[in-house]
Amino acid sequence: MSRKRRGLVAAALGVCLTMVLPLNTVTAQPNTNSSPQRTVFEVTADSPEARTRVARTGVDVLGANGPTLTVIAEARQQWALRATGLPLKDLGDADAQLAALGKADFTDRAGGVDPQDFPSGYTGYHNFQETVAELNKTVSDHANLVKLSSLGKSYEGRDLWALKISDNPGADENEPEVLFTCNQHAREHLTVEMCLRIIKKYTDGYATNPTIKNLVDSREIWVVPSVNPDGAEYDIASGSFRAWRKNRQPSNGTDPNRNWGFKWGCCGGSSGSPSSETYRGPSAFSAPETQRVRDFVNSRVVGGAQQIKTHIDFHTYSELILWPYGYTTADTAPGLDANEANAFATLGRRMAATNGYTPEQSSDLYVTDGSVNDWMWAQHKIWSYTFEMYPKSSSGTSGFYPRDTQIEPQTARNDSAVELFLTYSDCVPRITGRTC
Ligand code: 0X9
Ligand code: CA
Ligand code: CA
Ligand code: ZN
User: Fold this and answer.
1) Helices in 276-434 by DSSP H: which ranges?
2) For residue 355, what pLDDT is reported?
3) Tens digits of per-residue pLDDT, 110-144?
4) What structural domains does the chain harbor?
5) Of the residues 182, 185, 189, which should be mutated to test ligand 1's pocket, given the most ligand atoms within 8 Å of the CB?
6) Residues 6+ away with beta carbon under 8 Å from 64
7) Which of 89, 127, 230, 378 holds its CA 20 to 30 A away from the CA of 174?
């Protein structure tokens, strides 16, 4: 890997969850880079407060596996990290480890064939053009069940497509509406496949599966397979993955999942520095992509009532099911009472029982502000979850890039959770025996 490339990968590496770097496979290399020395540490932080304290030192938090955070610290940040007083373990030079990972089995795209496509071993993933083709095919195969519309354009002018699935899809019927969003984070390509699976299952399955037919007939299901198509295309444009997280707004991208307008930037759960992987943008909803989804959700208030009742935002990785709030570690807060918190947790745990993920309030990990879930709930009382998909843990950035052979098993793994979610979407409190 060239010096330049190594720097790129290192610079692009952002927040993700549960990374464990394998000590035995890494060959230490001198840092010949002009970029600052970056060192990987494991930090033992066994409470949300301690983990949030670590995140706020400015280190790049890669992952959390129980109480163990894996972080990258630049030399100047190591003082702050040590000042937390938490136990640290030095795992060595980050760029050397990243360089070793970066060559994985990416195929050289020399020859310039289809540059916006995935490397060898990943061609089962849908790039943006293939995703659009899949949506159009669904429309022609199931014109009676779906309606395709654009929520507007991304920063670079790509359409943010939304597919509605229901009986009489052209009519706005009085049925609970459910929203699935994928790919807020560019490199989380498996989530696009999750949205495409939901589309396939609830259209192709309609004619033969009575459970599916019942759910489709009684709900209006909205699926947005890519909320961040610019970032996703950028991640694959060079032929090898960049581990790009944010959107493509100048100069260095905004993290869409820190840009939502409820308690934006309130609580040290995002960064005000444009170079950060959790940059919240200059103002709430400064990202065109979050604006478009916001406007769509706002437009679903009909006769004073929000029609969308439930929402899942798919991410990778760590195998978690998360619910609001992220901005505070308190279980309840203004606008979220104990009954509601209990309903969130109960449905979260029931879904997790079907897929083996770990269910928890999102701030049990560490505090995040400006996330989509907090806005959906606070603004609209939409029961909004984050799924962090496969894998549970990984060596470095490779966690974002499971081979395409994992698409089928790891999306199918969520079939039961999605079905349960759709079932309770008429009234989530019903799961705790309460009424709506
Ligand atoms: O940090 C994030 O945006 C999500 N993790 S990821 O590794 N995919 O970037 C987690 C967001 C969960 N927090 C809230 N929903 N508040
Ligand atoms: Ca309908
Ligand atoms: Ca409706
Ligand atoms: Zn994510």
Assistant:
1) 288-299, 338-355, 372-380, 407-412, 415-423
2) 98
3) 554 555 788 888 889 999 999 999 999 999 999 99
4) 33-100 (3.30.70.340), 128-432 (3.40.630.10)
5) 185
6) 17, 18, 51, 70, 318, 365, 366
7) 378
Pairwise CA distance, residues 265 & 285, whole Å: 12
| pTM of the full structure | 0.87
Spatial distance between the Cα atoms of 65 and 19, rounded to a whole number of angstroms: 7
Task: Give the separation between CA 142 and CA 326, rounded to whole angstroms.
Answer: 38
Query: What is the pLDDT at residue 367?
Result: 94
Looking at residue 115, what is its pLDDT? 58
Residue 177: both structure tokens together: 């509406």
Ligand 3 centroid distance, CA of 169 (Å)? 9
| Tens-digit pLDDT profile for residues 396-427 | 567 888 999 999 999 999 999 999 999 999 99
Q: Determine the residue type at 65.
A: N
For residue 17, the ligand closest to its alpha carbon is: 1
Q: How far apart are CA 147 and CA 161, in angstroms?
A: 11
Question: How far apart are the CA of 416 and the centre of ligand 3, in A?
Answer: 24
Output the 3-class SS for 30-70: CCCCCCCCEEEEEEECCCHHHHHHHHHCCCEEEEEECCEEE
Measured CA to CA, the distance from residue 116 to residue 234 in angstroms comes to 8
CA atoms within 13 A on the CB side of 315: 25
126 lines ligand 1 (CB under 6 A): no
Which ranges of the chain have pLDDT less than 70? 1-36, 94-115, 395-397
| Cβ(219) – ligand 1 distance below 6 Å | no
